[in-house]
Design brief:
Chain A: Belongs to the bZIP family. Chain A: GO terms for molecular function: DNA-binding transcription factor activity; transcription cis-regulatory region binding. Chain A: This is Transcription factor TGA9-like. Chain A: It comes from Carya illinoinensis (Pecan). The complex is a heterodimer. In chain A, 75% of the residues lie in helices and 0% in strands. The N terminus and C terminus of chain A are likely disordered. By secondary structure, chain A is mostly helical. Chain B is an alpha/beta fold. Helix content of chain B is 48%, strand content 15%. Chain B contains 6 helices and 5 strands; from the N terminus they run βααβαβαββαα. In chain B, helix 2 crosses helix 4. About 14% of the residues of chain B have low confidence. The chains are: A mainly alpha, B alpha/beta. At the A-B interface, helix 16 and helix 18 of A face helix 3 and helix 5 of B.
């Protein structure tokens, strides 16, 4: 601390106002003992140093034309007391410099500056380097300002000893502070300088700190961005392999394969929907429209087939509706949509219907309801039987119990198969009851309906939720994976 | 629903005891049983899908005759095997006969119900009156 004080007070006036760098430079030199006593109460004011550096740097430049020296090491101009006794610790660098150059004013400055620099090292090397680069601009600006106005004065001082350049330096410093003050009036020249310099120094300090913070933040952003791209690449690779890495809940391979096939099915659904729409609007002849309509029925047969295969490998994935969009999952019935609900939705939109057709639709609705009820009751009995098996009181043979339970669970696949069968039969019967144009409109309505449910899921998922913002930031990995997963889910239709 | 009890099973077995080992016999028994009532369901008491199909017919107002194969100690297993062969599927039950004719398992019954052919069949067999 003493050394800091030394560096500090060395630049300050021995009087009450200690921001007169030029004064300090030369007064302090004249009376080193007294100048040491004078110090700021607060932390070291680097601003003072800067002023000294600026002014001295200006002098040096004109003096020695050591521009490179100045630009390379602005702190080199700190050496203002060449003949001062070394009361603070000297570093090897500093001493070597001082040894290299003797009475030359520039070298004298170098010595002290390097020493001062060494002193400041432990304090904040980063800030020092940052400040050096930022001060460079400040120096340059000041340099330009001062140089234009004080060129002649400095040239006069060139030949002077450092001690004798005090007054002229004072004048230049005063002029520098005058520039910065924007002509504001004050009581005494000295006090104005001090206040202005202090304010300037504090501003510089604050600017430096904010620059550092910004730099750190930018570096953090960069590293996060790199990490994000890496995670995205990993995800893409994993999806291509049909697997989801840990963090998203592990999907079995059967489930992952089905999800991928379902996503493709959704895309196909969009394409066929567009075909139906254009076919209807273009008033295609029935023959052509029939091809499109039958193609759509086959499209549904396809997904029921895929579900049958998937049920063999991962029945829980299907029956819990994990492959669906959340909004569709609300209406889940044995691994898909409820056919009677679909008919209810369609009834109002299929007009005009003949009486026979109306009766057929009504009968269809009735029979689907009955079948749904029967299957639901069958599934309930399965669940009850499973409960009885697993919850059986004193378990004599755990493995036996588990084997029986497993056997019963196997029936789930049968129920999914029958439920999908019901859905397929319902769609086929609809096709049978309606005319080609009616069927085209009907299937278009169905496709749009489930498309809207999927869109609803997406919108719901992406709605603004302030309370969850912090969660999103802290759990980036899982959120990212969920977001990646959701789009594929949102395109799922309900069957 | 009419459940055939074990006594009736044994009464049927008596006259044909000499042919219990032959493969065709269970099938004959099945046919015989199937023709006795308008709607005949071969089931296993613990099977959930059988429960579903029973509920389906009851829900329609039909009163089917149910034969629980697991409750027939002597010929149940044979009949189950015969039904498996008849249907060509992995599970023997449930199997439905209407008017003595084979309709099939759950998927066939369901398909015929949805496409509207089941109710006329039931009416024809006298199981439904409307």
């Amino acid at each position: 601390m003493a050394s800091h004080r030394v560096g500090e007070t060395g630049l300050s006036d021995s009087g009450p106002s200690n921001h007169h760098v030029p004064h300090g430079v030369f007064h302090g030199f004249n009376a080193p003992s007294t100048s040491f006593i004078n110090q700021e109460g607060s932390a070291f004011d680097f601003g003072e140093l800067e002023e000294a550096i600026v002014l001295q740097g200006v002098k040096i430049r004109n003096d020695e034309a050591k521009a490179p020296l100045f630009t390379g090491r602005p702190a080199a101009t700190l050496e203002m007391f060449p003949s001062w006794p070394m009361r603070f610790q000297t570093t090897p660098g500093g001493s070597s410099k001082s040894g290299g150059e003797s009475t030359d004013s520039g070298s004298a400055v170098n010595t002290l500056s390097s020493k001062a620099e060494a002193q400041f090292e432990p304090e904040s090397p980063i800030s020092r380097k940052a400040s050096n680069s930022s001060d460079q601009q400040a120096f340059d600006q000041k340099h330009l300002q001062l140089q234009q106005q004080q060129q002649q004065q400095l040239h006069q001082e060139m030949s002077n000893d450092i001690s004798r350049t005090g007054p002229s330096q004072n004048q230049s410093a005063a002029k520098a502070s005058q520039e910065k003050r924007n002509g504001a009036g004050s009581t005494s020249e000295k006090q104005l300088d001090a206040k202005t310099l202090r304010r300037l120094a504090q501003n510089r300090e604050a600017a430096r700190k904010s620059r550092l913070r910004k730099k750190a933040y930018v570096q953090q952003l960069e590293s996060s961005r790199i990490k994000l791209t890496q995670i995205e690449q990993d995800l893409q690779r994993a999806r291509a392999q049909g697997l989801f890495l840990a963090g998203c809940g592990n999907l079995s391979s059967g489930a992952a394969i089905f999800d991928m096939e379902y996503a493709r099915w959704i895309e196909e659904d969009h394409r066929l929907m567009a075909e139906l729409r254009t076919g209807l609007h273009a008033h295609l002849p029935d023959g052509d429209l029939r091809i499109i309509v039958d193609g759509y029925v086959c499209h549904y047969d396809e997904i029921f087939e895929l579900k049958g295969v998937a049920a063999k490998s991962d029945v829980f994935h299907l029956i819990t509706g994990q492959w669906m969009s959340p909004a569709e999952r609300c209406f889940l019935w044995i691994g898909g949509f409820r056919p009677s609900e679909l008919i209810t939705m369609l009834i109002g939109q299929l007009d005009p219907l003949t009486d026979q057709q109306l009766m057929g639709i009504s009968r269809l609705q009735h029979s689907t309801q009955q079948t749904e009820e029967a299957l639901s009751q069958g599934q309930e009995q399965l669940q009850q039987s499973l409960i009885d098996t697993i919850a059986a009181g004193p378990v004599i043979d755990g493995m036996q119990q588990m084997a029986v339970a497993l056997d019963k669970l196997g029936n789930l696949e049968g129920f999914i198969r029958q439920a999908d069968n019901l859905r397929r039969q319902t769609l086929h019967q609809l096709r049978h009851i309606l005319t080609v144009r009616q069927a085209a409109r009907c299937f278009l309505v169905i496709a749009e309906y489930y498309g809207r449910l999927r869109a609803l899921s997406s919108l719901w998922a992406s709605r603004p939720r302030e309370s969850l913002m912090s969660e999103d930031i802290s759990c980036q990995t899982t959120t990212d994976l969920q977001i990646v997963h959701q789009p594929s889910q949102n395109h799922f239709a309900n069957f | 629903m009419n459940y055939q009890t074990e006594s009736s099973w044994s009464s049927y077995n008596m006259p044909t005891r000499s042919n219990t080992a032959s493969g065709g016999d269970p099938l004959q028994r099945i046919e015989r049983l199937a023709s006795e009532n308008a709607v005949v369901i071969f089931s296993i008491s613990t099977c959930c899908m059988c429960h579903a199909i029973k509920r389906l017919f009851c829900g329609m107002g039909v009163n089917p005759t149910v034969h629980e194969l697991d409750q027939d100690p002597r010929t149940g297993k044979d009949m189950e095997a015969a039904l498996t062969r008849l249907l060509g599927s992995s599970s023997a039950v449930p199997v439905v006969f209407i008017g003595g004719k084979l309709v099939g398992s759950m998927d066939r019954v369901m398909a015929s119900h949805i496409n509207g052919t089941l109710v006329p069949l039931l009416k024809e067999a006298g199981a439904l009156w409307l």
